[in-house]
Amino acid sequence: MTPMTAEIIAIPRAALHEQAAQRLRQMLVEGRIRPGAKLNERELSELLKVSRTPLREGIKMLAAEGLVELLPHRGAVAVSLTEADVMNTFEVMAGLEGQSGELAAQRITPHELAEIQAMHFEMLAAYTRRDLSAYYALNSRIHNAISAAAKNPVLAQVYNQVNARLQALRFRSNQDGEKWKRAVKEHEKMIEALATHDAVAMRDVLLAHLRNKRDVVLEQLREAQPAGAAK
Question: What structural domains and CATH numbers belong to the chain?
Answer without folding.
Answer: 16-78 (1.10.10.10), 83-224 (1.20.120.530)
